[in-house]
Amino acid sequence: MISRRIVAEAFIAACRDELEAPKPGNVHVYASGHGMTAAQFLNSAAAAADPLCAPATRVGARIRGAVEATLRAVGANTNLGIVLLCAPLAAAAELEALKLRDALVRVLDDLDLRDADDAFAAIVQASPAGLGRVEKHDVFAAAQVTLKQAMAEAADRDRIARQYATGFADVFDLGMRLHAAATTRWSDPTFAVLAVYLGFLSKFPDSHIVRKHGAEVATEVCRAAMKFDALLWSAQEPADLLGELLAWDAALKARSLNPGTTADLTVATLFGRRLQSVCQSVLPSGRNSG
């Protein structure tokens, strides 16, 4: 089995790398925002890592343990979306005989009512902005279906839930593809992370912004991201765009617009890429990780 330490280190590194990119509207090392700092997110990653990566542990228990550890460490919900996305990936990394993506599908298919109850409890504890009541599979009630089924019900309104229903299609087919291309194009890994973030943000409205500010505002941000995404990919020296990126960052934060779901998907992509590398090293000869 891949050691807990290796998986935890991959998780913390993914969180750190995401914070080092100038992600407009989100918290990063260049600028705080929304009452939060990069240091809080680093502390959150360190606190969440052990329960998130606990070996032979149900996904729901990983989620609940990581959220509780984060709340004890920083007293705020800094990483619920990250935890929801990364817990199944961490569990999948333990299935060494399978490619990461195949292992993830098995993990998602194995989710049960206990996982749903624990995940629901974690969501209620974290109390994310915009959390309301829904008619079916409300997190304030006891789970009646598996966690995967509950996420499938929310998939049309929440991009994180959609990953559970689609086998993390956005992460594998968009995020990881963009990261691979960007790391080939630029030597600075910061801009590979930014390429993933802008890639997600330009492809679909951010769920967090939709919940807090509505679909029209989220679509406006998505359209602006298209411009910056095109600028980034056309740049020979992406560092030259830093001034424009930070100006847009400040403008978004002045309006309390935080593409939080996009940032969560970015962390999941970086974590998945690192886990792919780890899994590749332990797969039987002749098999490729994916």
- The CATH topology label is Triphosphoribosyl-dephospho-CoA protein
**CATH homology-level superfamily:** Triphosphoribosyl-dephospho-CoA protein
Beta fraction of the residues?
under 5%
H/I helix tally? 14
Overall CATH architecture: Orthogonal Bundle
Q: Low-confidence spans: pLDDT under 50, at least 5 residues?
A: 130-135
Text of the CATH class: Mainly Alpha
Shape: globular
What portion of residues is helical?
55-70%
Number of strands: 0
- Tally of distinct domains: 1
The structural class is mainly alpha
Order of helices and strands: HHHHHHHHHHHHHH
Give a written overview of the molecule.
The relative contact order is 0.16. The protein has helices at 4-19, 38-52, 59-74, 80-92, 100-109, 113-126, 147-154, 159-166, 169-185, 189-203, 207-213, 215-234, 242-254, 260-282. It is mainly alpha-helical and 290 residues long. The chain is globular and about 45 Å long. The protein has a single domain (4-282), classed as Orthogonal Bundle (Triphosphoribosyl-dephospho-CoA protein), CATH 1.10.4200.10. It has 14 helices and no strands.
Outline of the structure:
This protein has 290 residues and is mainly alpha-helical. It is built from 14 helices and no strands.
Structural descriptors:
14 helices; Triphosphoribosyl-dephospho-CoA protein; 290 residues; mainly alpha
